[in-house]
TrEMBL record:
<dbReference type="Pfam" id="PF00072">
    <property type="entry name" value="Response_reg"/>
</dbReference>
<feature type="modified residue" description="4-aspartylphosphate">
    <location>
        <position position="54"/>
    </location>
</feature>
<keyword id="KW-0238">DNA-binding</keyword>
<dbReference type="Pfam" id="PF00486">
    <property type="entry name" value="Trans_reg_C"/>
</dbReference>
<protein>
    <submittedName>
        <fullName>Response regulator transcription factor</fullName>
    </submittedName>
</protein>
<dbReference type="InterPro" id="IPR011006">
    <property type="entry name" value="CheY-like_superfamily"/>
</dbReference>
<dbReference type="InterPro" id="IPR001789">
    <property type="entry name" value="Sig_transdc_resp-reg_receiver"/>
</dbReference>
<feature type="domain" description="OmpR/PhoB-type">
    <location>
        <begin position="128"/>
        <end position="226"/>
    </location>
</feature>
<dbReference type="InterPro" id="IPR016032">
    <property type="entry name" value="Sig_transdc_resp-reg_C-effctor"/>
</dbReference>
<dbReference type="InterPro" id="IPR039420">
    <property type="entry name" value="WalR-like"/>
</dbReference>
<keyword id="KW-0902">Two-component regulatory system</keyword>
<feature type="DNA-binding region" description="OmpR/PhoB-type">
    <location>
        <begin position="128"/>
        <end position="226"/>
    </location>
</feature>
<dbReference type="InterPro" id="IPR036388">
    <property type="entry name" value="WH-like_DNA-bd_sf"/>
</dbReference>
<keyword id="KW-0597">Phosphoprotein</keyword>
<keyword id="KW-0805">Transcription regulation</keyword>
<keyword id="KW-0804">Transcription</keyword>
<feature type="domain" description="Response regulatory">
    <location>
        <begin position="5"/>
        <end position="118"/>
    </location>
</feature>
Length: 229
């Protein structure tokens, strides 16, 4: 698979360099622009897969750049800002940004948010398109699942949750971590949503005679192991 192309638009060169260092460790190809107009030129010329966009920039700020961007592109955008007020976040989401993170930020958290946005917006880009794990064959482009050669009627979020757990075998995740990774950091629903989806996954796999390997780790969350509740 080709590397994911990440574009950072920020007038602070140190921020761009910090993001580049961490993003290249993730295997991304990284581009940078230091003003909104230059960033838009790179969007048209390079077609990035993800954009990290600062708000406070000279000449064309992040608000104006995002508004222009959304007229022609659906490229996922994470907005960076020194402003953490609810009004600014709401304005960003109304303009069509996919996530909003306040400066100063933890670059590891930013990378996690980028992964979460990509999983939601373009899972086939982030993952191999066809992946076989045990008896399960995942088609991540079309969000379809085949169990022992038979098509299985799973909801998209059930497939994404099962894929995430199965591709991280024996790693324990809390409910909140699963919400962040599968539903996204901006999801503010009930953590018991995870329990409901796990229950449905187990029931549906049982119909195929499969012992579900998603295990409950009491008091913590879930892992994909050797099977059993």
């Amino acid at each position: 698979m080709r590397p994911i192309k990440l574009l950072t638009i920020d007038d602070d060169e140190h921020v761009c360099e910090l993001i580049r260092l961490y993003a290249e460790l993730e295997g991304y190809e990284v581009l940078a622009a230091h003003d909104g107009a230059g960033g838009l030129e790179l969007v048209y010329d390079e077609s990035p897969d993800m954009i990290v966009l600062d708000i406070m920039m000279p000449e064309m700020d992040g608000w104006a750049a995002c508004e222009r961007l959304r007229k022609d592109f659906a490229t996922p955008v994470i907005m960076l800002s020194g402003k953490g007020e609810s009004y600014d976040k709401l304005r960003g989401f109304e303009l069509g940004v996919d996530d909003y993170i306040v400066k100063p930020f933890d670059p590891k958290e930013l990378m996690a948010r980028i992964r979460a946005v990509l999983r939601r917006t373009n899972p086939s880009l982030y993952h191999e398109e066809i992946v076989k794990l045990d008896e399960l064959l995942f088609d991540m482009r079309h969000l379809q699942l085949t169990v022992n050669g038979e098509n299985a009627m799973f909801a998209p979020k059930e497939i994404e949750l099962l894929y995430f757990l199965a591709s991280n075998r024996n790693r324990v995740f809390t409910r909140q971590q699963l919400l962040d990774q599968v539903w996204g950091f901006d999801y503010d629903g009930d953590p018991r949503t995870v329990d409901v989806h796990v229950k449905r996954i187990r029931e549906k796999l049982r119909q195929f005679g499969i012992d579900c390997k998603v295990e409950t780790i009491r008091g913590i969350g879930y892992k994909y192991g050797e099977g059993g509740a």
